[in-house]
Amino acid sequence: MPDISVGLNCPTCGGAISIAEGENAVNCPYCSSVLFVEGDQGVTTIAFKNKVARDSAMTSTQSWWRRGLKARDLPKTGKVIETYPIYLPFWRTSTRVAGWICGYEERRHTDQKGNVKVERIPKESMVLQDYSYSEIACDPGDLGIRSLRNLVGESSFADFEMIPTFEATTSKDDAVVHAKTDAVSKARSSARVPHVTFERLHVFPRALTMIYYPVWVVRYNYRDRMYMDTVDGITGQVLSGRAPGDPLFQSLAVTGGSSLGGLIAAGSIIYGSSADDWRIGLAGLAVGLVVLFLAYRFFRHGSERIEGEFKDKKATMAQTLKQVQGVAKQLEGLR
């Protein structure tokens, strides 16, 4: 993840200088003055410049309408009602993790008699890595944006009373705690030690920045219903949004999913019976039920397409995974 460079003017000679995120001292290359930069309560506050014009934001939205399983007539029927820019506050934390993770991995070997032997292979991994973490510093409501995806762009100090911003409502201390937790989780994942027996990790927060990021909000109408999406003010990409689904795709999903799931389940059961291997039949039945379940979920929720970091979307996905796992456990119990 690239560091943020903030543009400044030297108060002595007026020359243009830049300072990297996390630093608080810089030498002016023109007059050699030593400058000290301090943010609000130890937090550097910067804003990225909005690089996307209103027309470009609308064009990105209209291109987004044509992608995915959205209503086929959305590009022709959809009508943009309003488009306006806002600045969203994000906490951006740079954290270093150092330490050791020790443990083992298991390898299973089957001999000619079918006996399974489990071998434990010791593993030791040193961790010394910097991690970047970001989270929104306010309640995003229905915007569907909760983390910062882009850190490349022109940034500068700005008069935040002159730009439309959401007020930061979360604590910087909570952001640091969340960043530490995220960094430790990523460090454990990168160590690739399946079974941990010893762990000693030290976490060092290096820099904390409040970033005001430009986002275009586009509201549009489709068949007398209001929808909304957001466009990145630097990259021009659609970050999140809700769009109408298409009844044809719903019908095809439930029809095709039912047919495919039934064929997989029935075929596996027949093949397993002829091969005298009940495990093949159970595996095929499980796959068929999962296909049927996913087709039903798409049919049920396909009337609206949702993209972005929405809470209800995450809850739906978590519920779906939980239900699929429940079906798999039930089949496992039949053995």
Taking the sheet with the most strands, its summary is: 10 strands, mixed
Q: How many beta strands in the DSSP annotation?
A: 12
Radius of gyration, Cα only, in angstroms? 27 Å
Q: What share of the residues does DSSP label as strand, in percent?
A: 35-45%
Instruction: Tell the overall outline.
Output: flat
N/C terminus separation? 48 Å
Order of helices and strands: EEEEEHHEEEHEEEHHEH
Classify the secondary structure makeup into a structural class.
alpha+beta
In terms of topology, how is this protein built?
Elements: E1 5-9, E2 16-20, E3 25-27, E4 34-36, E5 44-48, H1 54-65, H2 74-77, E6 79-110, E7 116-136, E8 155-156, H3 172-191, E9 195-222, E10 225-232, E11 238-244, H4 247-274, H5 278-301, E12 304-307, H6 311-334
Parallel strand pairs: 1-8, 5-9
Antiparallel strand pairs: 1-2, 3-4, 5-8, 6-7, 6-9, 9-10, 10-11, 11-12
Could you characterize the architecture of this molecule?
There is one protein chain. Helix 4 runs antiparallel to helix 5 and helix 5 (278-301) runs antiparallel to helix 6. Strand 3 and strand 4 (34-36) form a beta hairpin. The strands form 2 sheets. Strands 1, 2, 5, 6, 7, 8, 9, 10, 11 and 12 form a 10-stranded mixed sheet that branches. Strands 3-4 form a two-stranded antiparallel sheet. It starts with a strand and ends with a helix. The protein is α+β, with helices and mostly antiparallel strands and 335 residues long. It has helices at residues 54-65, 74-77, 172-191, 247-274, 278-301, 311-334; strands spanning 5-9, 16-20, 25-27, 34-36, 44-48, 79-110, 116-136, 155-156, 195-222, 225-232, 238-244, 304-307. The chain contains 6 helices and 12 strands. Residues 314-321 and 330-335 have low confidence and may be disordered.
